[in-house]
Design brief:
The chain has 172 residues and is α/β, with parallel strands linked by helices. It has 7 helices and 7 strands. It folds into 2 domains: 113 residues; 33 residues, no CATH class. It is globular. The structure holds zinc ion. Zinc ion binds next to loops.
Length: 172
Amino acid sequence: MHPKFVADAMVAHLARWLRVMGYDVLDHTQCGEDDAEILECARSTGRVIITRDEDLHARAVRAGLRSLLLRSGEVEQALAWIAHETGIDLSIDLGRTRCPLCNFPLIRIPSAEVDGAPAHVRERYSHVYVCESCGKIYWPGSHFTRMQATLARAREVLKKLKSGESKEGMGR
Ligand SMILES: [Zn+2]
């Protein structure tokens, strides 16, 4: 299942997470910051709204749009709730990863062919991932390892949500 999302400015950090997991997420820099712009973006492109704004969420529901109101700003809780509601996979598949900054799909390129890759990266990784839109280069370094740990915790939260043990203050 590959739902697409639009994130309001308060959950921009979640947009970056979802993109790394391979999901198509537009944010306030792409859709606009006004509620009306976010609603129109969701309507015209069939996206699920993710927000911490109760008013925006209520307007979305009234307009018949799919919206997830995130009551926790914590990454693990929020991602678990999004997965609970939409069935997204809480893992990183580097073949699907999008640029966390601009949402463009990344392309895998031999690191020797990438001028901007630092020497230690070229030595260690045969391939890197490049965003053709903003030019940023990515590789699975220590930050990636920390992200994997966060996602493992999010999957634990999701397990609890599924078993009904804990709502963790989340809501629709
Ligand atoms: Zn980019």
